Amino acid sequence: MEKNNKFKKWFEEHEVEDLEVLVPDMAGAARGKMIPVSSFGEGEMKMPEGIFGQTITGNYFESENNVEDRDMLLEPNINTLCMVPWMEIPTASLIFNGFTKEGAAIESAPRRVLQNVLELYSKKGWRPVVAPEAEFYLLNPSNDFHNEIEPPQGRLGITDTTKQPYSLDSMNNFDPFINQVYEYSEIQGISIDNISQEMGPAQLEINFVHGDPLSLADQVFRFKRIVKEVAIQHEMHATFMARPITGEAGSALHVHQSVMDESDNNIFTNEDGSVSETFLHYIGGLQKYIPDSLLIFAPYANSYRRFLSYWSSPVNLEWAIDNRSVGLRVPDSDPENRRVENRLGGSDVNPYLALAATLACGYLGMTEKLKPRDAIEGSAYDLPFDLHRHIYASIDAFSSSEAMRSVLGDTFVDMYTGIKQKEHEQFQEIITPWEREHITLNV
Questions:
Q1: Measuring CA to CA, how many Å separate 425 from each of 153, 197, 399, 406?
Q2: Which of 75, 132, 145, 437 lies most in the core, judged by the most C-beta atoms within 10 Å?
Q3: Which domains does the chain have, with CATH numbers?
């Protein structure tokens, strides 16, 4: 009752009329319902548990855990309460966790998967700190998905098709869009560090201020909605697809990560400022277990097209200091801020699962005291391809990984691999324009 009173007081102070009931699904998209705030707290809030079994096309994967499509009870997270700035009627937004009627957490829920990994860290007296970097493309709006995607016109009325990384002029072409993204992000409690022009035309990258992984996952989840909504308001579309344009760079979700002890000391650094064995073990865990979990970092068939861009995406799991060609980059920093950047994930990932997976790999490395390969020098693009080349190999690796099951849970692993299997089966049913053009009359 006291908790409900806190919510109602907040609603009154902000003159809220409607409430978005949000649950992040397996793709990292928002599922839920809209309710009047007057009905909040009046009885139990419910939603079908089957939303976690939905594929990207809206179909369902049925397992023994969701075949009955039971209702789950929703518990609000007061720290996620914020206004929805693009709604005409004053509307608030709130993220919920799901539980069974017996009070058990829904183990297939992505947000719960991340919470479970963070509990493993907590039991060791560790506290992970992360800082995601999300890339995305702005697009010319079109409803014809048979045509190649094109960049949009900016405020100058021209379409910029050149590659201008870090160009302020190219980025300023979309100033009205960027300014509104900052405005909406501030309203929703999203801490943006900086923004830059990336390698593709109308491709931007947003860096988030480092912090607690669950909070950052919530921020990335909300940020994607903001970007898409603001793009629409500026007569554009936005996509976090891993490789949306033929011949252009892919979009990534890089994750900087470090681990603090109970005294807020970085355990990646010794007292004398040198690199700790724990830091090397963490990298060793990433090298050993990212292949098992690649399905989370590359969740769709399109995700593997991003790895074909050798000049813009890592293709192996080497590590190095201040070297962006590797999959595991260690930025040049002072000892207190020593960290590793996982550059493998595409922007199409579910942020909760991507953070859970990278932290799980590092956790296994630390607890198993795994040693990494030696750091490299020079370009890692010249080294052999060291990742799964297609999604089937990733599905098999993830499903059969006892390590992933031990940290992420059997229920989640079975559900996630089942969904990815079903999605790819649907993808394979589609005959592409390339096949019709080059094979139809030539075989």
A1: 36, 36, 16, 27
A2: 132
A3: 2-106 (3.10.20.70), 117-436 (3.30.590.10)
